[in-house]
Each structure stands twice: as structure tokens, then as C-alpha cells.
């Protein structure tokens, strides 16, 4: 799916959502795209969203994306992973497995604590 500023909040609020920040002119993005698509096809329980950083500059800025591709993963509305660079298929599958195994009660408590410390809660 294509993610935009308009559908972002609704998309990330539930379940597992992987976001690929990319651009048409980016060589590493073009190599990562098929990996992202292949893992997407094998994991229909997760949402795989793509953000064209040229078209969605405000959304890319919201994430502080300065290098592409950048991968961000949410689970139940909480960002749990973020990393620039293209991942090989095995690494992307492994990260997705780790996200599935997270203790979300503990993760939510840690996230809320981080928000408090940052003065955003």
C-alpha cells in the first residue's frame, strides 16, 4: 500500500505495520523494493506500506528520514524498530519475527515512559 500523511495515523494504529521510505532515483531502494514485496507476500498478517519521500516530504520529515531506504516498524500503534539501509530478505524476516514476539505490555510501558521523559505524554 502507499502511505501518505493523510492515511498514516489510521494505518499504524493496529497490528504490525512495516514502512519503507524510498525514492525512485535511489539505487539501494530499487534493490530493497523486491525484498520488501517478497516478504510482504509471505506475511499477509502484517501491513507493508511504502512512502515515496519525494511525494511525501512532510511525512519523511516527521520521521527525520535523512537516508533512504529507511525501514520503520510499528506494532499496535507503537514504533518498535527503525533503521536506514536495505536489509536482506533473511534479516527483514528475522526482524519481523522479533516484532511478533514482543511483550506488548512491557513495550507499551517503556514507550509511555519515554514519552513522559520527552515531555510528550
From TrEMBL:
Give the superkingdom in one word: Bacteria
GO MF entry, a single one: protein-disulfide reductase activity
Domain Thioredoxin per the UniProt entry, residue ranges: 1-101
Task: List cellular component terms (GO).
Answer: cytosol
Q: Which Gene3D superfamilies match?
A: Glutaredoxin
Task: Give the UniProt keywords, A-Z.
Answer: Disulfide bond, Electron transport, Redox-active center, Transport
- Mind telling me which Pfam families this protein's record contains? Thioredoxin
Query: Gene encoding this chain?
Result: trxA
Its family remark reads:
Belongs to the thioredoxin family.
Name of the protein in its database record: Thioredoxin
> What InterPro entries does the entry give?
Thioredoxin (IPR005746), Thioredoxin-like_sf (IPR036249), Thioredoxin_CS (IPR017937), Thioredoxin_domain (IPR013766)
Amino acid at each position: 500500500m502507499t502511505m501518505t500523511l493523510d492515511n498514516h495515523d489510521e494505518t499504524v494504529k493496529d497490528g504490525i505495520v512495516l514502512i519503507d521510505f524510498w525514492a525512485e532515483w535511489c539505487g539501494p531502494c530499487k534493490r530493497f523494493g523486491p525484498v520488501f514485496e517478497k516478504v510482504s507476500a509471505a506475511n499477509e498478517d502484517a501491513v507493508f506500506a511504502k512512502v515515496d519521500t519525494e511525494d511525501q516530504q512532510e511525512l519523511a520529515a516527521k520521521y527525520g528520514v535523512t537516508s533512504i531506504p529507511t525501514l520503520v516498524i510499528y506494532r499496535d500503534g507503537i514504533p518498535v524498530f527503525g533503521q536506514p539501509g536495505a536489509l536482506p530478505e533473511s534479516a527483514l524476516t528475522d526482524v519481523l519475527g522479533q516484532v511478533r514476539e514482543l511483550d506488548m505490555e512491557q513495550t507499551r510501558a517503556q514507550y509511555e515512559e519515554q514519552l513522559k521523559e520527552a515531555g510528550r505524554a
